[in-house]
Amino acid sequence: MSVIDETVFEAAESAVRSYSRSFPALFSTAKGDCLSTADGRYYIDFLAGAGSLNYGHNPDSIKRALIDYLGGDGLVHGLDLATSAKADFLDAFREHILRPRGLGYKVQFTSPSGTNAVEAALKLARLATGRSTVIAFSGGFHGVSTGSLAATASGYFRQGLHQTLPFVTHIPYPQTPLGDFDSLDLLRRLLEDPSSGVDKPAAVLLETVQGEGGVYAAPIPFLKQLRALCDRHRILLIVDDIQAGCGRTGTFFSFEPAGIEPDMVTLAKSIGGYGLPMAVLLMKPELDVWQPGQHNGTFRGNQLAFVAAATAIRHYWSDDAFAAKVRKKGELVADFLQRRVTGPLGIPVRGRGLMWGIDLSDVPGVTAGKVSRLCFEKGLVIESCGRGSEVLKLLPPLTISQVNLSLGLDTVAASLSELAGDGTIQS
Ligand code: PLP
């Protein structure tokens, strides 16, 4: 490769770029839970492609399957043609993910970003019910194309666009920066009072754990009661599992512990197995009212993603062993944060599985952005989230080694300690 001129990004790339601003380095290779730069620096990865790399960077088993597939001149681009790679993915997904969980969803391949799976879900909910409004939650993030952005609550992403984002009513999530809220009671009042001013919606859309909103997890009883309320009013329940799904919270689907079956589920990010672009909408069969090609897109058939996804599913999801390891690691993280962050410093932490947030709202002079920058100097990639980037988000690959998980956590604790300046936390 020719010598790289790093000024090219500032000169040629749009101002919209963001992660490259938070993590200013020229990355070139990556393996497992580590990234490395062109000038030979290594970073532990607690960002994992914003949740797209649950199985880490370049996992060997999946890489081998991809190389074999490319070596055999397998179709790479396939529109929505019937292909052997897609058939194999559907077979693996049904056998190892849907059937063991008693789920009969049909699978729609959308354009490969999460936002397009959400677009499809919103359109289908409206088509299937003949209603137009959707209830979503404050703090929710569902993508930034116009339809999904209408459901995304963040003022940052909506700025300047409010007038273009109709037909979504936001209500507070059960956990919020302002304290807990009885969202069910509010929803019940809106639905059961004929003069509430809120039309009966087509669907309720939610993340079971709000990732971008600040790592707020909906209580399991809330999810059960929400399902029952939606049933009672014949309103569709859509779970956006784009960030919290694919094992992130310790089960393949984040809603499994609630024992509920959403009417639709969106998956993207880690479903592609290797960080390859792929997104799907899962729907109960009776909701599949699409006309052929009514929701389309040229890149719905990324065959490499199908190969990677099928391999990942067979490799990690043939039994519960991998998920059990994720849950174990999640317990280690919870224990560490309790002992080293909440206990000594009184800083709240929240999360499930391997998705955790450290809430720095009330720590004077310490922002998540500052902690993230210091962590980066110390060799850890970790991002912030929340309404005003006040939450440090821990999102390591699910395959992270115990050693690098501990090293990363120590780096977080040391950085917090240094910035809080009280020396309470020692690395
Ligand atoms: N939904 C959730 C819950 C997400 O976390 C994201 C992305 O972070 C999206 C939707 C949008 O996905 P994408 O960025 O692939 O469009």
Structure commentary:
With 427 residues, the chain is an alpha/beta fold. The protein has a domain at 61-316: Type I PLP-dependent aspartate aminotransferase-like (Major domain) (Aspartate Aminotransferase, domain 2, 3-Layer(aba) Sandwich), CATH 3.40.640. The protein is 37% helix and 15% strand. The chain contains 14 helices and 17 strands. The protein has helices spanning 8-12, 19-22, 48-51, 60-71, 84-98, 114-129, 146-151, 155-158, 183-192, 220-232, 303-317, 321-345, 368-377, 402-420, and strands at residues 27-31, 34-37, 42-45, 106-109, 134-137, 168-171, 203-206, 209-210, 216-217, 236-240, 264-267, 280-283, 349-352, 355-359, 380-381, 383-385, 391-394. The strands form four sheets. It has a seven-stranded mixed beta sheet, sandwiched between helices. A hairpin with a 5-residue loop joins strand 16 and strand 17. Helix 4 (60-71) runs antiparallel to helix 11 (303-317). The mean pLDDT is 96. Residues 50, 113-115, 118, 141-143, 207, 211-212, 240, 242-243, 268 line the site of pyridoxal-5'-phosphate (PLP). Residues 50, 113-115, 118, 141-143, 207, 211-212, 240, 242-243, 268 line the site of pyridoxal-5'-phosphate.
